[in-house]
Amino acid sequence: MNASMLSYILFSCLLLSVQAENCVVREIIRYTQRLLDDSSLSCPCRQTALSSCSCLPIPEHGYELACFVDGTKHLMENNKSSNPAIERLYLTFQAQLDRNLCKRMAGGDQCQYKTKGNVKEFLKKILTTYQEIDK
User: Fold this and answer.
1) Secondary element (H or E) of residue 59
2) What is d(CA 123, CA 34) in angstroms, rounded to the nearest whole number?
3) Are 23 and 104 in contact, with CB atoms under 8 Å apart?
4) What is the pTM of this model?
C-alpha cells in the first residue's frame, strides 16, 4: 500500500467520523425557533378527530428522534399550507434516524411517549433536546 492510498483511507475515516456526529444542531434550533415564533401553530391539543390542532408525542428519554420524525410527519400531513421549516426538520430527523447520524440521539427507532402535547409543547421539546446537545 503506498502513501497516497494510506492518506486517502485516513481522510475517508476522518470524514466518516465527522459525518457520524452530523446532528446539525444549530440548524434544527434555528428552524424550531422560527416555528415557535409562528403564532398560527399555537392552539390547544384536543384528541378528537374534529380538531384541526395536532396532539403530538412528547417523547420519553431515548426515543426523542423517532418521536420527532413522527411528529413532524404528522404536522406536514395535517398542515393545509406547506411549511418549508417543518419539511426541513422532518427530512433532517428522518436522515438522522435512518443513518444513525447523531450518536447522541441514538435510541429506539419506534416513538415511545407517555404524554401528548400541542405543537408548541412538541417544538419546545425539540428545542430543549438539541440545546442540550449544543452545550
Assistant:
1) strand 56-59
2) 10
3) yes
4) 0.79
Q: Which of 112, 105, 113, 111 is nearest to 132 (CA)?
A: 105
Estimate the share of the chain in helix, then strand, then coil, as percent rounded to the nearest 5: 60, 10, 30
pLDDT tens readout for residues 59-68: 999 999 999 9
CATH of 23-134, one of 3.30.70, 2.60.120, 1.20.1250, 2.60.40: 1.20.1250
**SS3 state of residue 104:** helix
For residue 73, what are the CA distances in angstroms to 1, 13, 57, 69, 121? 48, 33, 12, 6, 16
Distance separating alpha carbons of residues 55 and 48, to the nearest angstrom:
9
Predicted confidence band at 49 (pLDDT cuts at 50, 70, 90)? low
